[in-house]
Amino acid sequence: MDTRRKFLQKISGSAIGLSLLPGLGMATRLTADKTFSGKTLNVAILGLGNYATRVAEAMTLCTRAKLTGLISGTPSKIAAWQAKYNIPAKNCYNYDNYDAIQDNSDIDAVYIITPNALHAEEAIRVAKAGKQVICEKPMAISVKEGEEMIDACKKAHVKLLVGYRMHFEPHTLEIIRLRKAGEFGKITFFQGLSGFTIGDPSQWRLNPKLSGGGSMMDIGIYSVNGSRYMIGEDPVWVNAVETKNDPVKFVAGIDETMQFQLGFPGGAVASCLSTYSMNNLDRFFLDGVNGFAELHPATGYDPTEGFTHKGPLNFPTTVHQAVQMDEMAAIILDGKQPVLPVDGEEALKDLKVIEGIYKSAKSGKTVNLTI
Ligand code: NDP
């Protein structure tokens, strides 16, 4: 596997690497195409934290998406990012004055990368300013908020896209292609394992007012979303059990470990684990009557590894965030339809399942879902 990985890393960005990408159009590049002369999507990032740092770095590899603006509550970060990414002062804002982006033609879209509970209000402000909205997962902390975001973006005639980077990942897309082609036969089962051991107890992820929930909102959402795109249906019922071993670190409103089962209309079932207290949990398994597929790691940054009953899937390692941003530029600028949707309606479905999971864990009963 090591040799294969080295080979794939070596070809990343080469013509061979590009030609191997399935289901991705001309917008996808592993390294920036300096000769591209078409319209680019000019993006401001709102919230300059850890993930934003990764996204900004990845965007230097993009062909069609370009970092042109900054919105932050921390002036020292603005100064450092301005210098690093050559952003003019006129494109920099704080949380009090960023409604003024409506008059800034250097900014087409705002990518919201702040704590979960802030997404809804920020997305609505960005939409009202007439800019395209890209928002991190979870889109919001409730179905109600998600619906308000969708409405605001519709009213403002702007798109609302959510940072589901795995929806553009080559191994993932190949499994979807194979499933649609009938390679696995009738789908019977999905297993999703999503978890890590969370550190610093003072971080916003463990504050329900900012996170809106615990492991489910942060990492379990990958298994919820993955069950839907791997099986290719939306669930109709959910059953969930929560385990809390450390009620000091994981206060009320912060789930530590959640096990949940989902039932799908075609008869398939899913069994998933979401946790903030175990390591090495990043695996998807899809079973059908004629074969199986596995992603392991399934949703970690890089590299994703996949195989089926026929053997390993040989696709290049990509920088997820760079591919995502170029593809989102194509969706916004060209109206491109992605293989797996990344719009607000798609993200709302995950919030509906997560609300069902919380409801089931609390009541001890199976909850029917209308997605
Ligand atoms: P960080 O804490 O590292 O960054 C969040 C940033 O938001 C801060 O640095 C700060 O930026 C800004 N902010 C504004 N208000 C607050 C507040 N009250 N408390 C804390 N920060 C605030 O978080 P992450 O970058 O890890 O996560 C941000 C979002 O990205 C989350 O929704 C998370 O789920 C998502 N995410 C997605 C990943 C993916 O793979 N798709 C991976 C990791 C995170 P500033 O100082 O500039 O104001």
Ligands bound to this protein structure: NADPH dihydro-nicotinamide-adenine-dinucleotide phosphate
Number of discrete domains: 2
Q: Please, how many helices?
A: 11
Q: Biggest sheet: strands, sense, closure?
A: 9 strands, mixed
Examine the coordinates and then state which fold CATH places here, giving the name of the CATH topology of the largest domain.
Dihydrodipicolinate Reductase, domain 2
| Class derived from helix and strand content | alpha/beta
Shape: globular
Q: Give the amount of beta strand, in percent.
A: 15-25%
Strands side by side in the biggest sheet: 14-13-12-11-7-10-9-8-15
What's the rounded overall pLDDT mean? 92
Low-confidence stretches: 1-30
Give the helix level as a range of percent.
Answer: 25-40%
Which oligomerization state do the chains in this entry correspond to? single chain
